[in-house]
Specification:
By secondary structure, the protein is α/β, with parallel strands linked by helices. The chain has 23 helices and 28 strands. It is 45% helix and 19% strand. Helix 1 runs antiparallel to helix 13, helix 4 packs across helix 9 and helix 12 runs antiparallel to helix 13.
């Protein structure tokens, strides 16, 4: 039993979809597309970074090279600065009422100024104690701790360091992920902490962690709210700033929503407990102040001068202090800059908490559905539709939709939807189906093109390839037009060529002549969307309207017939040109009685339209795409009737005439009964295309209609006069000569009325 084509395609599509889906889901879960996805994500970050507003509640103080130069010039400080400088900054922010001051600087060694410290007559305190005293007075200073497997000094939290920690609620399911972050930072899994010196860590309001973990491509896109060390949940620098500003230390993990709930704030986290940062761009988006500006303002304020920066400018703000001079600050790669100061990670984290605009990852089931939907759409599009233009266009549209949805989700919903895996799935799906189509559908198309290239025009073949349903291989009845052609006395021409050129060369000359003729005639048929049925010697059988339906099949057939007669004359010029490629000295045939009117080639054509059976006919091992039926037989009969009416070569039936418009010049002939067909029908001689016809043809057409109308009404004298005038203008009009002779005959011996029978001619020859 033959399997339906639609079922085959459905099974094939299902197999391809299953294979591709399994492959892409497994590779997606295995992280194969992570690198490309990170790059596409960074593209989104940079594209929309400027659209996100930086928080006004965050102030950044940076110690740059200008500040170092200012301190050397104004204070006589070399590098490193005395701790008194940081104390002075702390005092000024305390004066202004800042919410917090986070030093992203690790003071792990005592000040080098301690042994000879006499600045500001603080002889009772060393340099570190001055800084510690200011921090103690402020009460909201944040010092940092670094967790590392290489530089840490202890694996325990100091017992005397009693600072705020996070109180965790419902973190049992994800607590191990926070602990793994530290373990994965070193090959040994043994993490140690590096603290500031005792004076500074004890005087700080809180200790904040600055250790972060990059993605697999060494770019920092995420940060963690806290880190677990020695069983304690140590806040990150950003979280520590909020705690110093009065935020609670109690946080809750909502496993269902994958988020940390901190009072009325929500911090979404990934499977490892990290938050995806919503970057605003470079640090200049926060309009940073420089350390020398703070020191100068503090000095001016102390001396009762108008300060460069008023203390009130810092009221209620979260302040971060960091190094920004060449070679002093830690550098990380971020999506917005490959040389991004480390303090920027914590500033961005706090900004996201304050504005509640973290980036969320789309859920894993959604990502998988997106990949599956992409594969299904591409595969179904390619296998249902065989046009490569539509397939490519559809794939491009899907690419654009994937790109657009990824960009829109990030810009308007702060959502990270994967783009790499779906886009790669679209590409591979397109390639897979294209290869399959080439191997299967392509083979069918090549077979169709090869099988029909000798019989159909390229335009028709392309239509069949695009829609094979137009080719009904089982045979069907449809309205069509058939053409039968034949060269007058070609067998006699063959015999004379044989005698003229001998038995060896005669056949070669004959074949060359015939091939030239058939090629030129066939090209005309194909150019008009006709189908070559077969060649029978010098005869051509062709039809119009199948395998691809064309409503104007009759007009296409008539155009072909006219063009063939015109090309016939041009072929004569080719073979008679002594310098031409196809030269055959047929002038010797002109006096043989074989050649009509001195023309070596004279084609007769019969054209008829009507119901015909068309399809593959024959045996399973030998089939021909051909036509059958009475309408076909009538076309064959009309080809032979040309010689009985002495026409110029083209006879069409009334059925064809009824289907063509006034673009053709035709003249009516008698109604006839052809051999084998009893029903009388009107014949017409097809003369030319009206737009190409010379004036004398158009004049003759008008006169002929008057004369022929008189003839059929038995007014033979009037008809005779008109036919005589036509012959005077064109002595070679053999059809007019035929009807003039009939008029003379009927004038001499008028036909009986009952015998006239409306002028129907019964033909006895094929």
């Amino acid at each position: 039993m033959k399997i339906p084509e639609t079922l085959k395609k459905a099974v094939t599509a299902s197999i391809i979809i299953v294979i591709l889906s399994l492959g892409f889901i497994l590779t997606y879960l295995g992280g194969l597309y992570d690198f490309l996805e990170y790059k596409l994500y960074d593209f989104r970050v940079n594209l929309f970074a400027s659209a996100a507003r930086a928080s006004d509640d965050i102030i950044l103080i940076l110690l740059d090279q200008d500040s170092i130069d200012w301190a050397q010039r104004e204070r006589g400080w070399g590098w490193p600065w005395p701790r008194e400088a940081y104390a002075e900054i702390t005092d000024y922010l305390n004066l202004g009422g800042a919410n917090s001051l986070a030093f992203d600087v690790l003071f792990t060694e005592p000040s080098i100024y301690n042994t000879n410290y006499n600045t500001n007559n603080n002889n009772d305190k060393n340099d570190d104690e001055v800084f510690a005293s200011s921090a103690q007075d402020f009460g909201r200073t944040i010092q940092i701790v670094v967790f590392s497997g290489q530089t840490g000094s202890t694996d325990q939290w100091p017992g005397d360091l009693n600072k705020p920690f996070f109180e965790l609620r419902n973190f049992e399911t994800i607590r191990s992920e926070f602990e793994k972050l530290n373990q994965n930072a070193t090959n040994t899994g043994q993490i140690k902490a590096l603290f500031p010196i005792r004076e500074l860590r004890n005087s700080a309001g809180i200790i904040g962690n600055v250790t972060g973990w990059a993605d697999s491509d060494n770019i920092f896109r995420r940060n963690n709210l806290f880190t677990i060390f020695d069983g304690k949940a140590v806040p990150g620098l950003s979280a520590a700033s909020l705690i110093m500003g009065g935020a609670s230390t109690e946080i809750n993990y909502n496993q269902k929503k994958n988020q940390i709930e901190w009072g009325d704030r929500v911090i979404p986290v990934d499977k490892n407990g990290r938050s995806i940062l919503h970057f605003r761009g470079d640090l200049d988006r926060y309009h940073p102040y420089w350390a020398w500006q703070i020191l100068q303002s503090a000095q001016d304020y102390k001396n009762n001068r108008e300060p460069l920066l008023n203390p009130e400018d810092f009221a209620g703000r979260y302040v971060f202090f960091g190094f920004y001079a060449q070679g002093l600050y830690d550098v990380f790669s971020s999506p917005v800059n490959s040389l991004y100061p480390g303090v920027g990670i914590h500033v961005t984290m706090l900004d996201n908490i304050l504005q509640q605009d973290f980036i969320r990852e789309s859920p894993l089931p959604v990502n998988i559905i997106l990949i599956l939907a992409t594969i299904i759409l591409i595969v179904m599009l390619a296998l249902i539709n065989s046009r490569i233009v539509l397939n490519v266009g559809g794939t491009v549209i899907i690419f654009v939709l994937l790109m657009g949805s990824g960009l829109a989700a990030y810009r308007y919903f702060n959502l990270w939807i994967p783009m790499a895996a779906p886009m790669f799935a679209a590409l591979i799906s397109f390639i897979t189906t294209a290869v399959y189509n080439y191997a299967t559908e392509g083979r069918k198309k090549r077979f169709i093109k090869s099988a029909f290239s000798q019989y159909l025009s390229p335009v028709v073949i392309d239509e069949i390839i695009a829609d094979p349903k137009k080719l009904n291989l089982g045979g069907e009845t449809r309205d069509m037009t058939a053409i039968f052609t034949d060269i007058q006395k070609f067998s006699s021409i063959s015999e004379i060529l044989q005698k003229e050129y001998g038995e060896e060369n005669g056949p070669r000359v004959l074949v060359n002549l015939l091939n030239l003729y058939l090629t030129e005639m066939s090209n005309i048929i194909l150019q008009n969307k006709g189908t070559i049925d077969k060649y029978e010697g010098d005869a051509i059988i062709a039809f119009f309207g199948a395998p691809v339906w064309s409503a104007d099949h009759a007009a296409l057939a008539c155009r072909s017939a006219i063009a063939m007669k015109k090309r016939e004359a041009e072929i004569y010029d080719l073979i008679m040109d002594p310098a031409g490629e196809f030269h055959i000295p047929l002038f010797k045939l002109m006096n043989s009685g074989v050649i009509r009117s001195g023309r070596p080639l004279y084609t007769r054509l019969g054209v008829n339209s009507g119901k015909m059976v068309v399809g593959n006919m024959g045996t399973p091992n030998k089939m021909d795409y051909t036509i059958m039926g009475n309408s076909v037989n009538l076309a064959a009969r009309l080809e032979g009737v040309n010689k009985q009416y002495n026409t110029g070569g083209i006879l069409i039936s009334e059925y064809t005439k009824d289907k063509i418009n006034d673009e053709f010049v035709c003249r009516p002939l008698s109604r006839v009964r052809v051999v084998g067909i009893n029903t009388p029908l009107r014949l017409y001689e097809l003369l030319d295309l009206r737009e190409e016809a010379p004036a004398e043809i158009l004049d003759m057409e008008k006169s002929w209609k008057q004369g022929f109308n008189a003839y059929e009404n038995q007014d033979f004298m009037a008809a005779k006069n008109i036919f005589t005038v036509i012959l005077q203008k064109n002595a070679n009009d053999s059809v007019a000569k035929l009807y003039l002779d009939r008029c003379n005959k009927f004038i001499a011996n008028p036909p009986a009325q009952e015998a006239w029978d409306d002028g129907v001619d019964s033909l006895t020859e094929k």
